[in-house]
UniProtKB/TrEMBL annotation:
Segments of skewed composition (Low complexity): 99-129
Residue span of region Disordered: 97-129
Species this protein is from: Rhizophagus clarus
Protein name: Uncharacterized protein
């Protein structure tokens, strides 16, 4: 009796022949490759921009120096607005914004409070009559 030798290795894989691309398929493939290259370049530029931006000190945008005189003594103050709370920022705006005449509808919020209180007092006086 003779035995048949069986090779269990994967050396006998069947390979399919690749179909030849039609001219339209080649053009499409070329356009896809071109588009991929363009996207890769854009990604490189964005990554480079991000690394350059993060390497700079961005905290300088919110740091301010204030020079003023207090009791005839020149003073200099450096402060970082990014560390301020919203309440502190509102106080700073109210303090540093000049209070114009009361005819200006965009003046500080105190005017709107005054007008509301004056309307309330007017309505109370009309109710008494």
């Amino acid at each position: 009796m003779s035995y048949q030798k069986i090779d269990l290795g994967n050396n006998n894989k069947r390979t399919r022949n690749k179909k030849k691309l039609c001219p339209d398929c080649r053009d499409t493939n070329d356009y896809v490759n071109l588009f991929s290259n363009k996207i890769s370049k854009i990604e490189e530029i964005v990554d480079e921009f991000r690394t350059n931006l993060s390497s700079r000190k961005t905290n300088k945008f919110s740091t301010f120096n204030a020079k003023f005189t207090l009791n005839n003594v020149p003073c200099e103050l450096e402060y970082n607005l990014s560390q301020f709370t919203l309440e502190d920022l509102q106080k700073l705006v109210i303090f540093t914004t000049p209070n114009r005449n009361n005819n200006n509808e965009y003046s500080s919020s105190n005017k709107s409070n005054e007008s509301v209180s004056s309307e309330d007092s007017n309505s109370e006086s009309s109710q008494e009559d």
